[in-house]
Structure prediction request, 650 residues.
Amino acid sequence: MALSNSGKNGWLLSIPALILLIFGAAGPLLIVVVYSFLEPGDFSGVIWNFTTEAWFRVFFERDIFDGTVSTADAHLTIFWRSLKLSILTTLATFLIGFPMAWFIATQPPNRRAAWLFLITIPFWTNLLIRTFAILEVIRNQGLLNSFLIWLGVIDAPLQILYTDTAVLIGMAYVYLPLMVLPLFAAIDRFDFKLIEAGYDLYASRWRVLRRIVIPIVRPGIVAGSILVFVPSLGAYVTPRILGGGKNMMLGNFIELQFGQGRNWPLGAALSMLLLVIVLTALLAYVRATSVEDRHNV
Amino acid sequence: MTEEAAVEARNAARYYGSGEATVKALDDVSLTIRKGEFFTLLGPSGCGKTTLLRLIAGFETPTEGQILLSGRDITDIPPNRRRVNTVFQSYALFPHLSVARNIAFGLEMLGQSRAEVGRRVEEMLDLVRLDRMADRKPAMLSGGQQQRVALARALAPAPEVLLLDEPLSALDLKLRKEMQLELKRLQTETGITFVFVTHDQEEALTMSDRIGVMRSGRLQQVGGPREIYNGPVNRFVADFIGETNFLKGMLEGGRVRLASGESLEVPGAAGQGEVTLAIRPEQIRITDDGPIEATLTQTVYFGTDTHCHLHLRDGTEIVARLQSPPSGEVGLTTGETLRLAPVPGAVQVLEGD
Prediction:
């Protein structure tokens, strides 16, 4: 690390990043925080009056006529759907990605590069186009339904599009590489002799996987899960296209507040909520990996 | 030690590839390892010793032949159901588990109770003198300590046979000597059959009850260290184990006429024809009435002894090893003509080349 040792003035190198962070992240974030405590303007924007109304409305709603307070069930449904779909996406990418990463890591080195290259190819295509491709596959007259009908498995097309399942399929497809790459990195470092050592010490295949492989590649699993879970939670394009208008996720709901809903403070409060959820997940990640570090000292 | 067989290989063979490209890693090896003995598989890298070990462990299945454990055919039994444990060359300690948990692993997999496991782990930590390291992670230990954890982990389930795959090769010389004694002690104390793989002939000679010398997938000779060292069956074994001088000659009537023209008496040698003689460097004396004439070309001081490089009359190079006197000077000058005599019984007649 020659650069970090380049003298007392090494910190000067971080100035461009610092400027970017201040103006690109900290500044806008501050604006969002401030907006979440203001009143919504009539058509858009904000009125500079302090109020916690937006935060109240994240969780509760007040009846227009008698003013009774009840929980904002519609919002909670969206939170719950976002959380559920994000967890399921993470799970699905793990279940598909783990064998995939294992396969690549056990290939001869020259072929490994080719497989990794294939994994990264989807990144070259615009997210919108990839999502429309999935739509093409799962829609009623799409590839999947036509194929299943041709096979005789079903008589009428399955309604997959515009359901949570469609969003799940789309997100799993889009985020799969983000799971595979850190998993591959972890499995690549894994000493396969340990598997033999496990078998040698009377462990079955399942126990070798659970007691040896999984704990040792855990940093990769955690990193992949974070990389999939965080963008899933804030996903916008995929649920918008594959979920239709009804099956909104948090990202779509936030967009709605700044657009048609014309309630910027509520949108800002929701954004902050999303940030809190993500930060909680990241904290869990830091804790999980620091435990791992103590193991590896 | 009994005559009962712990491990048997019956015509065991392991091939890789097929057709023209077939590599015979192990070629028709039959071998019996006795219960309670320290048996060493010795040979250069690629001789098949590790392959044979892996067949016994169950990590690979023989292409042909059978492997028996205590008389039972285990050829098709997976490694996790064989009462055999391995000490790996790289130790293969579980990095995420503490020393104690590493040692406990096999016992837990065998379904022993928590109390039993705890007691046995204590016992093992004591045996390898690591009681104070119980809670450390393997990465916090020195190479020698990791080695001892690997040993304790493999010994804990009290296997019928312990397999050791060049376990000392990663250690420095001093530690290696220490561990050799330690291994021997552990083997004597536990009474478990040890099958030890090494390419280090000295290691093999000092530790083993019996040695199997291998080359190109085939077993060359099996016997005790003295038997192998003093009575090698062929040139390979003689050359691989210790240093040896080879002399060509014609055998007739109990005497061998050397290529240099001199005649050497070889008691007990029957038959006639071209033979190769093997004489160990430390079994050659310099005496005025010796039958062989030689010219000293170089002396090399090794501390305990001094190696004398000599030329015979026909140009054959041989080495004689003399014990260094207290002064360190053997009193010979380069270019001097000397007479050599092998110690009685030191000359081995090898067949073929």
Summary: The domain at 244-350 of chain B is CATH 2.40.50.140 (OB fold (Dihydrolipoamide Acetyltransferase, E2P)).
